[in-house]
Amino acid sequence: MAKSIGILTAGGDSPGLNAAIRAVGKTATDSFGMQVIGFRDGFRGLVENRTVRLDETALSGILTVGGTLLGTSRDKPHRMPMGDKVLDMTDAIVDTYQKHHLDVLVCLGGGGTHKNAFRLLQKGLNIITLPKTIDNDLAMTDSTIGFDTALGIATEAIDRLHSTAHSHHRIVVVGVMGHNAGWLALGAGIAGGANVILIPEIPYDIKKVADAIRQRLRSGKSFSIVAVAEGALPKEEARATQAAVEAKEKAKTKEEKKKVKAQLDKLKTQQTDNTLNFSKQLENLTGLESRVTILGHLQRGGTPSAIDRLLATQLGTTCTALIDEENYGVMTALRGKHVEPVRLEEVVGKRKTVPLDHPWIETALKVGISLGN
Length: 373
Ligand code: F6P
What we know:
Elements: E1 4-9, H1 17-32, E2 35-39, H2 44-47, E3 51-53, H3 56-59, E4 80-82, E5 85-87, H4 90-99, E6 104-109, H5 111-122, E7 127-131, H6 147-168, E8 171-176, H7 183-191, E9 196-198, H8 206-218, E10 224-229, H9 235-250, H10 254-286, E11 290-294, H11 306-324, E12 330-335, E13 338-343, H12 359-366
Parallel strand pairs: 1-2, 1-6, 6-7, 7-12, 8-10, 8-11, 9-10
Antiparallel strand pairs: 2-3, 4-5, 12-13
Helix pairs in contact: 1-11, 6-7, 8-10, 9-10
Bound molecules: 6-O-phosphono-beta-D-fructofuranose (F6P).
């Protein structure tokens, strides 16, 4: 009996998702005679049984298209907004899976998606995941779908910002995505020739940043580019955030959890305001004008890079081979040039941040980039 595959995309969109959907769909039908049903808007599509048949017509011409033809959402199966309530809709998802006589559910997503997919695995569904996020912060895989494209977009943006910084003798502060990991800011900062790179893994001291900029002034360079990862924090805030995270882990009662969550949310909101405030402080400390550009969702837009198309196709074709072998409960992970299955237990709940001894850190320091510490 030909197998039936369900597939969904969840979490932030990224370039390369459609390339991965195409790879799963094409090989499933062409090589294994399987049928593929797409579910709309992440896990919500399973709750509401909103589907699209992924046949040859649906898959044609999507390799180069950004975003996801299925749509996506950040809705969690066990905490699904339903009208004015938030309900556990896991049973409805299991019900849809059974109604469609699915053999496996393929989930394309980042950290949050992997946690949700693992919960469904524990409920008895066959699951395979593909690592997707521009943040590259999923454990056990060398890279994730979308990271390379976002790296290129952020690098090109920094290239362009050199012109105005140089012409106006200004500091330009560039806000880079990456959630709580510094891969994008570090990679694009080095590739784009930033002079300072601030990442979450290295809490910074703004005085050290100002010193680096003044040092450049003394050597005749009247402009500086500062790449700031959205999760980067000054030392004092990093300590406060760490304390709040530890308190959250220790929190027992609903009251305590609510209090700590409010504290963390407040710290998070400050981060966005902080980039503007950070830029103002740099003006005061250096005497140079400073301007801010937050790259935001530009980094998730448009056609995937060749590397992301290759990665997405490799992951997708490996996925269908694993389905044929009935090797479930795994993520397709890039390890060197190869794609291997990694047990979901080894991935879920772990974030891959930049190790302080990573070659990119060493490279940045060697080429004279300040990391703010
Ligand atoms: O996880 C990808 C990502 O782009 C992060 O870098 C960013 O912090 C987040 O998604 C933004 O989420 P949203 O698109 O829901 O605002």
